[in-house]
Amino acid sequence: MSARTLMCGNEALAEAAIIAGCDAYFGYPITPQNEITAYMSRRMAEEGRVFVQSESELAAINMVFGAAATGKRSMTSSSSPGVSLMQEGMSFLAGAELPAVVVNVMRGGPGLGNIAPSQGDYYQATRGGGHGDYRHIVLGPSSVQELADCMPLAFDLADQYRITVMVLADGVLGQMMEPVTLEPKPRRPLPAKEWALTGMKDREQNIVRSLWLGEGALEELNNNLEAKYQQIRDNEILCEEYRVDNAEIIIVAYGIAARISRAAVDRARDEGIPVGLIRPITLWPFPSAQISAAAETFRMFLTVEMSSGQMIDDVKLAVEGRCPVLLHGRPGGGVPTVDEILDKIRQLTIRSGAV
Amino acid sequence: MKTANIKTADMKTVFKRTPVLKDCPTHYCPGCGHGIAHRILAEVIEELDIQDRTIGIAPVGCAVLAYNYIDVDMIEVAHGRAPAVGTGMKRTNPDKIVFSYQGDGDLASIGAAEILHAAHRGEQITVIFINNAVYGMTGGQMAPTTMLGQVTATTLGGRNATGEGYPLQVSEMLALLPGAIYVERCAMSSAPRIKQAKKAVKHAFQLQMDGAPGLAMVEILSPCPTYWHMSPAKAMAWIEEQMTKAYPIGKLKG
């Protein structure tokens, strides 16, 4: 499937996962990501790979845990309430240092919320939504093509660092149809999975565990995990800067909110307002250094989010009080429009005397 | 092992530890049934010659450290989720032999959905279900399998059916499902019972090796003298006299 094809985000990411060598998919139905499960049920069978519709998200993430422990590339997908149920398993994946890919096509919350697109799970995704001291990598694509491209990257990062990689999309990206090109990508050089449970033929017993009762044993694990997380912070941050030259106002946005903000940047620039966009692609690790550098040069930050303001905390941490950081947030399924963002920019311009 | 100055050539080996069981002391209480159950399991793995292709799943509960005693590739999983983990393992590795080893809190309470649906889907895994009618690791609280009238840390006046329910018969429930192809209840309460338990465990593994289309489970009634507040000998008798009333011994299916 290397030709350009019109696909919705959910199906594009599913096919991209198959091309990336996903051995097993486990999932439970939930809107707005049902196309992934349905697509996988057909395509994984065609490929002779594993598809199981689980009895719950709890079971799905634990099926991923089992398959991952044997060294297989495995994934699950869900939407916000379902991802909440998976948090126990994600904490165990972190403790056992197993590679896994989890897609969250976010919908409005809290609770059952609604089935409209949202970015309300940013905190849960980037802070480690389960218990204990851990992190996982979070990718925040902003187009159907980028969503698909995240899948081979997610599997490679997972295998390289023995970590969970979450692809954080939203209902718009999942449902929206766009032309995509899906082709195999060369894999990174990846370490052999010597830890995998494959039966102790010609070697000693392998154990996958997350319980460390001995004095200081868990502290040592936590320290090792932190060293690994630091390596990821040092090497894997992805971030796009758009029209930031001479900008007075920097919009920080990810996912579909960034896509909309980009159009607002173009319109503002047409009006002569110097606005730029910084778009984090990795949400953890967050491009703090890039934001921090920008705070030296630019005058004001505006985060555009489909939430009551969550990523804004990370921007403020990076800015360290050097500039004002403001929010344009649309929670509960609201999607910001270009006009809305443009209005906000105009107000800020008047208030701050920029231009 | 020291053999002193006895000529070993003159001696006949009448019993030896299976190499699938590691040569180390366990953390289990005196009179606990897990040690016997581990040995049964390890002997079966040796006899079926599957040590090099078996993957075991340890529960949350007293047997959480089973991998320290049973010498096969093993994983430790979240409380109750072993059958889901086993599903992921076996589906992606049909050539491997996958078993879960779960207690009654793990399997009958918090993991009730996982065991039910693994059986419902007919997952080709072997489940060893240790029923000792109490939560051991956390200090002897009521389990779904606790007997009526049984005193536990959370039923100080004895378990009362009103509000606390009746002993949950998981094997009977699973036996109703087409996906569960073999369900047998055994006990650790006497030598003949233990022999029968080993036979059942072996059969449950053999079915998986033969590619039989479904889940095989052996429930084992097992003593917990510590939280039954009785001597090991009395605990064995209590299994026979009390537990078998709620949990009749025998094959339920297959």
Rg of chain A, Å, rounded: 21 Å
- Give the biggest beta sheet of chain A: 7 strands, mixed
CATH homolog superfamily of chain B: Thiamin diphosphate (ThDP)-binding fold, Pyr/PP domains
Contiguous uncertain segments of 5+ residues of chain A: none
Strand order of the largest sheet of chain B: 2-1-3-4-6-5-7
What CATH architecture label of the largest domain in chain A applies? 3-Layer(aba) Sandwich
What structural class do the secondary elements of chain B suggest? Answer: alpha/beta
CATH homology group of the largest domain in chain A: Thiamin diphosphate (ThDP)-binding fold, Pyr/PP domains
Mean residue pLDDT of chain A? 96
Write up what this structure looks like.
The complex is a heterodimer of chains A (355) and B (254). Helices cover 43% and strands 20% of the residues of chain A. Chain A is of the alpha/beta class. Chain A folds into two domains: 4-235, 3-Layer(aba) Sandwich (Rossmann fold), CATH 3.40.50.970; 239-352, 3-Layer(aba) Sandwich (Rossmann fold). Chain B has a single domain, classed as 3-Layer(aba) Sandwich (Rossmann fold). Chain B is built from nine helices and seven strands; from the N terminus they run αββαβααβααβαβααβ. Chain B has a seven-stranded mixed β-sheet, sandwiched between helices. The N and C termini of chain B lie far apart (43 Å). The interface between A and B is large, with 39 and 34 residues. Strand 9 (207-208) of chain A pairs parallel with strand 2 of chain B, so a sheet runs across the interface.
